[in-house]
Write a structure and sequence with these properties.
Layout: E1 17-18, E2 20-24, E3 27-31, E4 34-39, E5 42-49, H1 53-61, E6 63-68, H2 74-79, H3 90-93, E7 98-100, E8 108-110, E9 115-124, E10 134-145, E11 157-160, E12 163-166, E13 169-172
Antiparallel strand pairs: 1-11, 2-3, 2-6, 4-5, 5-10, 6-9, 7-8, 9-10, 11-12, 12-13
Amino acid sequence: MSTPPSGARYDSGFYPMHLALLSVASNVLPVAWWTPVSKDPFRFLVAIDRKNHSLQLLRRCGEAALHFFPWSERERVIRAGYTSGRKRDKASRLGFALEPAVCLAETRVVRGADVVFELRVRREVDDGDDAGDHAPFLFDVVHVHRGTRPAMGAPLLFLGWRDFATLGERWRFRP
């Protein structure tokens, strides 16, 4: 693995980030490392921790759905990052109701999200040995479920580690 230049290291100075919930097949996980990268065609880049069970699911089925929930749903969304879906139905256990997607074959969408983007993997952005601890994926947006615009309400913001906030309010998750 390559070494960073002198003084370069991971620093969470780029937070806050809008926390989303990604569903892959019938598993769910919170993700903060996502960004739109193109309007036309509409694309997102999402990075998944290499130790996460959903990474293998994503590589197998090649699709996912990116959900945005309001601040009021923070407990369930965040808890999805502290519960494994490897051996149990994490979505049901956390009270997420899954329903069929419009354009995806295996991935289910979570009912009640403000906005859902159905995604198909365009490619995994990986440079082999120097890939790092997260696997970045470039996705094409194939369908959008419109609800409330998250930024107009109370978005769920990730501040780093276990700290979360919304506009005008702050909260610390205690597992």
